[in-house]
């Protein structure tokens, strides 16, 4: 039987992911604590707890992938567009950045930043939707989530 207490606990599990703004790794630790303490009380709580943790792990994985693509591309773009002095010629210390090459680096950095900002906004929106669904007693499955916990 689904009670108001179970609905509230499921909603708290989803909302506890927002503790990442206060506690480092709070988005993993707090839902994990609430879920493990209450997963045996209700199948509803168990499903919502797994969904919240799976979503946070998926977001972490996607952020790592974007970072692994962005950082090397940015560094290689900067290093390719910087003209380093030749050390065997003591009179040639010409250090400059090509405007054309730096534009590509800046554009790629802006696109990557926008991707990360969009992921952040979607994360907040999906957490609010999941909290609302849990409070209404409805099941919710986060989009683009990899099921680490089944």
UniProtKB/TrEMBL annotation:
This protein's membrane topology, according to the annotation, is: Multi-pass membrane protein
Question: What Pfam families does UniProt report for this protein, alphabetically?
Answer: MamF_MmsF (PF09685)
Main location class: membrane
Query: Is Iron included in the keywords of this UniProt record?
Result: no
Q: Where are the transmembrane segments?
A: 12-36, 57-79, 105-131
Domain of life of the organism encoding this protein:
Bacteria
The places in or outside the cell where this protein is found are: Membrane
Which keywords has UniProt assigned to this entry? Membrane, Transmembrane, Transmembrane helix
Supply the name of the protein: DUF4870 domain-containing protein
Q: Which organism is it from?
A: Gilvirhabdus luticola
């Amino acid at each position: 039987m689904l009670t108001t207490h179970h609905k509230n606990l499921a909603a708290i599990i989803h909302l506890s992911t927002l503790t990442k703004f206060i506690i480092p790794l709070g988005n993993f630790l707090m839902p994990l604590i609430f879920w493990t303490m209450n997963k045996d009380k209700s199948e509803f709580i168990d499903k919502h707890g797994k969904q919240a943790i799976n979503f946070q792990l998926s977001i972490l994985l996607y952020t790592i992938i974007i970072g692994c693509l962005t950082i090397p591309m940015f560094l290689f773009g900067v290093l390719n567009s910087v003209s380093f002095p030749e050390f065997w010629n003591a009179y040639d210390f010409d250090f400059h950045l090509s405007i054309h090459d730096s534009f590509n680096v800046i554009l790629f950095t802006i696109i990557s930043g926008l991707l990360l900002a969009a992921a952040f906004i979607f994360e907040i929106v999906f957490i609010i939707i999941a909290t609302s669904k849990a409070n209404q007693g409805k099941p919710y499955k986060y989009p683009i989530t990899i099921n680490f916990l089944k």
